[in-house]
Amino acid sequence: MSEDINLDQKLEYKGYWYLPSAPELKIAGFVTYYPNEKITLELIGAFDEEIETLFSDKNEPVIYGETSDAKDISLIQCYQYSSLNFAAGFPIVRYTCNYMIIGKYIMSLEEKSYYCASFNIPELSFWCHPAAINYTVYSDEKEQETKKLCLSFISTDFQSKNDIICSVDINEDTSIFLKRRISYNETTYRLKAHLEQYTYVEIVRKKKSSILDFLSNIHIYEDFISLATLSTVKSSEITLFDNELYEQVGEKKFYKSINIIHPYSDREDFLGGKKQDYLFDYLAIKDIYPDILKAWFNAPSDLYPIRLHLIDSLKQKKVFGSVDFLILIQAVEGFWWRFRDKNYRLTNTISKKVTTSLNTIMTELVNEFKDVELLTKASIDIDAVVDSRHYYSHFLPKSKKPKTLEGITLFKESKKLRVLLICCILSFMGLNNSQINDIFKKSNSEFL
């Protein structure tokens, strides 16, 4: 993985920029990436200096760049806005861009090639410790003083088999590898050395795939780690390697990195020293990690919005409101309608004409997970949840929904609903009640 590209740091590249359809017309300028905000391109001049064009809402699907440090850049989905000082004699044209691809010219994110991808999530190394460095302390038994401290590690290269923690075949085409990596740098005269270990993920696809295909896989994995860590996580580095883009030195191929830059507005600040209050870490699910990951990736599309609601509910918010409660209860309802209602009707011989009430939904789901101690201890107030759901959704008179909750009581009941929703999601991923109960017991999260 490239070490000088980080989505949490500002980036800027100067060079010449042009449209793929007119490579002879190159305009000087610079592109800037602002973490969590935007990508902007500023040109000293314009591809088309007609006044009408300068101040129109003209967009460019792709703009190419040749930077001063010899990087090939593709800016994708660019939206123009301009300024013109008639006294200066040239316009300043600016674009906001959705994606910046560093290392390769492409025409679109849908363009396919034989890629593999690696990405780093800062929280991942804490969720799954890389355990790549071993150290041994030698001491004098009599004097009980440390005589020698030895560090040992195996150097890892791209696509090395020695650094695999776990590999999972998601389907016939896609495999996901959880890997460890060592980063080692030493200063002049070897007076000081920097040694770092971290965990990252690699995705390998057998067929030709697009950048969008890989971004989709990466986002799904980010959501999985968000659930596991009970926080919203995003990759700090995304790197692709093209099977046809390399330099040959003797018999060895050195693949060129292709970095994907995209401003994630919902990234949370990560501090390496923060308390790791996770729902579960890798060691807690090590034996069933492959099965869980397969279920997570191969979930039907119906589960996607439910999963999004769950991830959204995990965000640490300064202000809690009724909308946050509705997100949770709607996700619980969605889970029931998609995965439980049909069997419930068949088992109880209930006509399709009869709509299952929210009170029944809540009662059945709570009873399904009655073996989960945390949920039982929470003791969800079903009547209050039902009244609150109808009141905040339809703004009925409070006299008709007397058990409607507000303020801190609504917040506390929402925390209980989050536990129920997590039970639903973990159940779908293949965990039984005993395993779910064990995960909650081992969890040290104060967020539950």
Strand order of the largest sheet: 1-2-3-6-5-4
Distance between the termini: 35 Å
The helix content is 25-40%
**Relative strand content:** 25-35%
The major beta sheet can be summarized as: 6 strands, antiparallel, barrel
Structural class, judged by helices and strands? Answer: alpha+beta
Q: Please state the CA-atom Rg, rounded to the nearest Å.
A: 27 Å
Low-confidence stretches: none
Mean pLDDT: 87
> What count of helical segments does DSSP give?
13
Morphology? globular
Q: What is the count of β-strands?
A: 16
When the domains are counted, the total is: 3
SSE order, one letter for each helix or strand: EEEHEEEEEHEEEEEEHEEHHHHHHHHHH
Features of the shown structure:
32% strand; alpha+beta; 13 helices; 448 residues; six-stranded antiparallel β-barrel; globular
Gist?
The chain has 13 helices and 16 strands.
Could you explain how this protein is built, in words?
The structure is a single chain. This protein has 3 domains: 92 residues, no CATH class; 150 residues, no CATH class; 143 residues, no CATH class. Helices cover 31% and strands 32% of the residues. It has 13 helices and 16 strands. It has a 6-stranded antiparallel beta barrel with strand order 1-2-3-6-5-4. A two-stranded antiparallel sheet has the order 7-14. Helix 7 packs across helix 11 and helix 7 runs parallel beside helix 12.
